[in-house]
Amino acid sequence: MAEKIADFQLKHKGSSFSRDGEDNLVEVSNWESEGDIDVYGAVFGSLTVSINIKDPDADSGEISWAGEGFLPDGSRSIGFQKGTWKKDGKNEWKLSMRGRDSKEGNVSTESHISLEALTWSGSIFRAE
User: Fold this and answer.
1) What angle do CA 87, 81, 15 make, to 5 degrees?
2) Which of 48, 97, 110, 121 fits 9 for a cystine, CB–CB 3.0-4.6 Å?
3) What angle is formed at CA 121 by the lines to CA 70 and CA 55, rounded to 5 degrees?
């Protein structure tokens, strides 16, 4: 098992919607921590998902994250990840992503979003 870097919990702060050239609804949802997260400090970022108009009830799809953290010492980190989401019950999503951040290098994230509670929680791990 990969080494855990940090656990996190984020709250949904709003979403914007657009349409791409392939009849996909592109949702960008904004998230932030309600306190400091180990290693990353106060975290803010956006999660992007595309849903095709022909399959609005899809059970899975691709997802991406772009975010930043502000640490108590005044330093900053940024990170990007891509991966997949899949339904995990009523109004629940399970996410698996991989990417890189400026603080820890290659990382992976296993997490869960409650669409009803508007919370996102999970763990970040070191990745090869």
Assistant:
1) 60
2) 121
3) 115
**pLDDT single digits (tens) 36-48:** 999 999 999 999 9
Q: Domain residue spans in the chain? A: 4-126
Q: How many CA atoms lie within 13 A of 41 on its CB side?
A: 13
Alpha carbon distance 14, 24 (integer Å): 19
Query: pLDDT per residue over 78-107, tens digit each?
Result: 999 999 999 999 999 999 999 999 999 999
**Does residue 74 come out as left (phi exceeding 0), alpha (psi in the -120 to 50 range) or beta?**
left
